[in-house]
């Protein structure tokens, strides 16, 4: 279960809307499933309207910063600008990190999280 304060979820939505029609990507960080930080990352995929790939250097820098702040990587989020909040075959094939992958569907406003590549859904609770 991931728990995120409403204001941090809104920060995530603002980031992803600003990237549209490209897919946006970023990290949710915190402790014990409680999100306390949103970290937007650049999407460097060659086809950003269809896929996402976080900039590797910025991703590593963000992960080092989390460690220094005593926070954990809780989830990787990305948007589906015109599709459902379900993992695509590309999402499943790229899943590397052992954390939930959060998909935010811009058209429907849905937020869903999955353990990938298996596809097991993880709950997302919005607080406040």
β content, as a range?
35-45%
Structural class: alpha/beta
Strand order of the largest sheet: 3-2-4-5-6-7
What is the β-strand count?
A: 8
Number of helices: 3
The helix content is 25-40%
**Unreliable residue runs:** none
* Largest beta-sheet characterization: 6 strands, mixed
Mean pLDDT comes to: 97
Name the shape in a single word.
Answer: globular
Radius of gyration: 13 Å
Our measurement of the CA-to-CA distance between the termini, rounded to an integer number of angstroms, reads 16 Å
The helix/strand series, from N terminus to C terminus, equals EHEEHEHEEEE
Write the layout of secondary structure elements.
Elements: E1 2-5, H1 6-19, E2 25-31, E3 34-41, H2 56-69, E4 72-80, H3 89-94, E5 101-105, E6 111-115, E7 120-122, E8 124-127
Parallel strand pairs: 1-8, 4-5
Antiparallel strand pairs: 2-3, 2-4, 5-6, 6-7
Description:
The protein has 128 residues and is α/β, with parallel strands linked by helices. Helices cover 27% and strands 35% of the residues. It contains three helices and eight strands. The strands form two sheets. A six-stranded mixed beta sheet has the order 3-2-4-5-6-7. Strands 1-8 form a two-stranded parallel sheet. A hairpin with a 2-residue loop joins strand 2 and strand 3. The radius of gyration is 13 Å and the shape is globular. It starts with a strand and ends with a strand. 34% of the residues are buried. The mean pLDDT is 97.
